Amino acid sequence: MASEDVKRREGVNKAPSNAVIGICKSLIAGGVAGGVSRTAVAPLERLKILLQVQNPHSIKYNGTVQGLKYIWRTEGFRGLFKGNGANCARIVPNSAVKFFSYEQASKGILYLYRQQTGNADDAQLTPLLRLGAGACAGIIAMSATYPMDMVRGRLTVQTDKSPYQYRGMVHALSTVLRQEGPRALYRGWLPSVIGVVPYVGLNFAVYESLKDWLVKSKPFGIIDNNNSELTVTTRLACGAIAGTMGQTVAYPLDVVRRRMQMVGWKDASSVITGDGRGKAPIEYSGMVDAFRKTVRHEGLGALYKGLVPNSVKVVPSIAIAFVTYEKVKDILGVEFRISD
């Protein structure tokens, strides 16, 4: 009897310990996935932001190749990766929280869905429910790390010919807090929340739904015969399709968010968009005002500035992130994956 009590207590103590270890492994896998995928496309990420906020009266480049050549010529190899350290400092925790939040949201939504349908074992998440789980994960992750994204955008925009107001992420955070107040760190948050719903939601929903369909239909050559799972190449393709759909829908909101983040930066007039009468930066009173002024001064096409490098970037970035996440969790021995 005494031995049974001891075993029972050991089991109770062991369960929370295993749960904590599982959470840590999941967060590590998500962080690694985010860091690897974003570093792989860092030059395209920087070019996208520069195009989004470029002054229309002082255009230095119009295309992806031309822009990358200009950065290489004026700033060298390091210029291609400027802001990547700050970006990784943001994307690693963001990705960790996003993937973990998606797993937890999926479990919770699936439990409620099974309770509602009365099917406790066989019911699976529908694409719409996956979209909801992905949207929840995106909002949580984005909100938790938004101040870092805000200052990362400003660090990325700085060039050799612009005043260097910020020396790094910590200096940028402290400077914005001191000069513009705490609210400035969340400038552009609303369009980010609205944009993250279709972006992250579609990423997860399309990726998983496409994988489920491929596993069930089993077209020739996409299943690894050794373990009856999709090959890495097929997973990359699924991630690429998911990323393309998500970013196309949400891109105008990303442009508006980035421009709102530049508001209040007094030394940024040489690099951010002008008001149509010179190089003075535009002031936006809110998201709707940012949309209206952008379209009025630069046309509807301005909402898609930087879309080409972003499309080139997002396809490998999302694909690498999904595959890296699942592979790292395999290495760490975590049983639950987003593909389960």
From TrEMBL:
Domain of life, per the record? Eukaryota
Localization per record: Mitochondrion inner membrane
| Keywords for the protein's UniProt record, in alphabetical order | Membrane, Mitochondrion, Mitochondrion inner membrane, Repeat, Transmembrane, Transmembrane helix, Transport
Look up the record and give one Gene Ontology term from the biological process aspect.
Answer: transmembrane transport
Give the coiled coil ranges.
none
Is Transmembrane set as a keyword in this record? yes
The record gives the membrane topology as: Multi-pass membrane protein
Q: Which Pfam families match?
A: Mito_carr
Q: Sorted alphabetically, which InterPro entries does this protein's record hold?
A: MCP (IPR002067), MCP_dom_sf (IPR023395), MCP_transmembrane (IPR018108)
Major location, coarse class?
Answer: mitochondrion
Is Membrane one of the keywords?
Answer: yes
Solcar-type repeats, residues: 21-108, 125-213, 230-331
**CC per GO annotation:** mitochondrial inner membrane
Family recorded in the similarity comment: Belongs to the mitochondrial carrier (TC 2.A.29) family.
Instruction: Supply the name of the protein.
Output: Mitochondrial carrier protein
Q: Which organism is it from?
A: Brassica campestris (Field mustard)
